[in-house]
Amino acid sequence: MRKTSSRTSPARVRRRRLAVAVVVAGVVGASALATGSASSHGYVSTPPSRQDLCANGTVTDCGDIQYEPQSVEGPKGFPAAGPADGSICSGGNARFAQLDDPRNGQWPATQLTGGQTYDFTWTFTARHATTDFEYFITKNGYDPTKPLTRAELQPTPFLTVPYGGKPPASNTITQQGVIPSGLTGKHLILGVWNIADTGNAFYSCADVQF
């Protein structure tokens, strides 16, 4: 009578390992899709935002944000909701806390003039269904040596661009607005990209000088 070996053949072991790898990959992929973390993202590139300056090497010692400037995602509903005061520029993400660091007011700033028409540019690595884009700016008296708070921002956006649930048409878009008049010194513009089909938004802070 022919004996059956208790040892599993190398070919069978390889097939089992392959099957396990496929299952694990499927679980990881499904998890990423469920959280949305694999497909996020965009940031203000004109005027250069803090994450843009870190990504292009103009500013150093930025931590993780230099590798993924598009990932500053946090709860939407700003200013009634959203990231806490002091962590607005990072979207409330501790990984990107360098964006909230005022660097003693030494972030490079783009020169602007009150009343001028200006083209704001967003750069995307993924384009989501969009409610709108909003742009807030600080009040006179803003202290660029301290982390941003709501109290230092004008309460309503100076520019809102509605999208009605549609995604941006390309990986870069330009939106034209008028810079508020009457501002002097250094200020901060906060761009907020409100996503239509999730509870999140993307935040982007750009330093400017009047």
Topology:
Elements: H1 10-35, E1 42-46, H2 50-55, E2 73-75, E3 110-111, E4 117-124, E5 130-137, E6 159-162, E7 172-178, E8 186-195, E9 200-209
Pfam family, one: LPMO_10
InterPro entries: Cellulose/chitin-bd_N (IPR004302), GlcNAc_Chitin_IntDeg (IPR051024), Ig_E-set (IPR014756)
Protein name: Lytic polysaccharide monooxygenase
> DSSP helix count?
2
Shape: globular
Q: Which class do the helix and strand fractions yield?
A: alpha+beta
How many domains, as an integer?
A: 2
Distance between the termini: 95 Å
By CATH, the topology of the largest domain is Coagulation Factor XIII, Chain A, domain 1
The SSE order reads: HEHEEEEEEEE
Largest pleated sheet: 6 strands, mixed
CATH architecture of the largest domain: Distorted Sandwich
Instruction: List how many beta strands DSSP finds.
Output: 9
Mean pLDDT, rounded to whole units?
87
CATH superfamily (homologous) name of the largest domain: chitin-binding protein cbp21
Give the CATH class of the largest domain: Mainly Beta
Any low-confidence stretches, pLDDT <50, length ≥5?
1-6, 18-39
Roughly what fraction of the amino acids lie in strands?
25-35%
